[in-house]
Amino acid sequence: MGRRLYVGNLPYSAGETELQELFSRAGNVDSVRVMRDAATGRARGFAFVEMATDEEAQRAASEFNQYQMGGRALTVNEARPKPEGGFGGGGGYGGNRGSQGNGRREPRW
Question: Does residue 27 contact residue 52 with C-beta atoms inside 8 Å?
């Protein structure tokens, strides 16, 4: 297991300090990053926590997966690397495919 963990189903009120304190119970925390909406600054409900060692990351994942925080059961597992290429971040695909003005989308075959 890698040292970087994905933490999902976070309460929107959760911040870096709260996660730092929680995950430090499992070992040394290198970094915590709560992902936020670029336009509003509002938390998006997930974060990345990097632990000092693989063993500490494994301990944190098993200890805090399904942990109750703010009435929500956290999802904690190994973070997957960001996909390379055309399927991440929008990239100009999808979205509004023209403006016919009728508000309906044509079926895609």
Answer: yes
DSSP secondary structure letter of residue 9: S
59-80 tens-digit pLDDT: 999 999 999 999 999 999 999 8
d(CA 108, CA 100): 16
- Sequence letter at residue 92: G
Q: Could you give the CA distance from residue 109 to residue 92 in angstroms, rounded to a whole number?
A: 19
Q: Give the residue extent of every domain in the chain.
A: 32-70
> pLDDT class for 48, splitting at 50, 70, 90?
very high
Q: Pick from 106, 108, 86, 77: which is nearest to 8 by CA?
A: 77
